[in-house]
């Protein structure tokens, strides 16, 4: 089933390049390179530690989540678990449906036991950049509804400070009519370079699931007070949400090259 999802991945989400990356890393026999193996062991450990019978779980977006879904399917079949899955994106919703897991929504389940999601970068203080796949707003909403927010990632996503590993910048979801003034305000106030994210499979900018644009802010490396910066960014008229997840995650699991899983904090 998981290979069937991979074959259809490009049709499911044109804004998420990570699924294509996973598709290129795995052959049809299911063999995985070291990076995918690292993602898998992190995802499996998180699912095994946080999911039990009658769990309501938020399902994040990204290539690592595919491994989490795979493990959920295994455990539901083997242990006859009753779980409800709340998606953070169109991609997550399709993974839930195509793997015959129970789909829920925040209207019916406003309080989640846990939410499990990937990350673009996690620093030593558990400041997180997310939104490389364009789903930051819905990911943050679902995470905010969960008792425990868990990050799963491979070893390349861990760093001492933001921007050390991830070079694509901080995603910022904005109202389309305001993107130019917002670009200028961020550059004037903080420096760096702000670019509108352009689509790959269509002409023009990426459009989020919510009908907005995404700006990617390549920030100066001397910035460090991310809680304050995040609050200030959200006060700019037209900014919907940022890809900065500050003081939100309870734990992060990183799959390592030696087959172990590093936990933070």
Molecular structure report:
By secondary structure, the protein is of the alpha/beta class. Helices cover 35% and strands 22% of the residues. The protein contains eight helices and 13 strands. It has helices at 2-12, 17-25, 34-50, 63-79, 90-98, 136-144, 179-190, 226-234, and strands at 55-59, 83-87, 112-117, 121-122, 128-129, 146-154, 170-174, 193-196, 213-218, 239-242, 244-245, 251-255, 261-264. Strands 2-1-3-6-12-13 form a six-stranded mixed beta sheet, sandwiched between helices. Strands 8-9-7-10 form a four-stranded antiparallel beta sheet, with helices on one face. Strands 4-5-11 form a three-stranded antiparallel beta sheet, with no helix packed on it. Strand 1 (55-59), helix 4 (63-79) and strand 2 (83-87) form a beta-alpha-beta unit. The protein is globular, with a radius of gyration of 18 Å. Its EC number is 5.3.1.6. InterPro entries: NagB/RpiA_transferase-like (IPR037171), Ribose5P_isomerase_typA_subgr (IPR020672), Ribose5P_isomerase_type_A (IPR004788).
Layout of strands and helices, then pairs:
Blueprint: H1 2-12, H2 17-25, H3 34-50, E1 55-59, H4 63-79, E2 83-87, H5 90-98, E3 112-117, E4 121-122, E5 128-129, H6 136-144, E6 146-154, E7 170-174, H7 179-190, E8 193-196, E9 213-218, H8 226-234, E10 239-242, E11 244-245, E12 251-255, E13 261-264
Parallel strand pairs: 1-2, 1-3, 3-6, 6-12
Antiparallel strand pairs: 4-5, 5-11, 7-9, 7-10, 8-9, 12-13
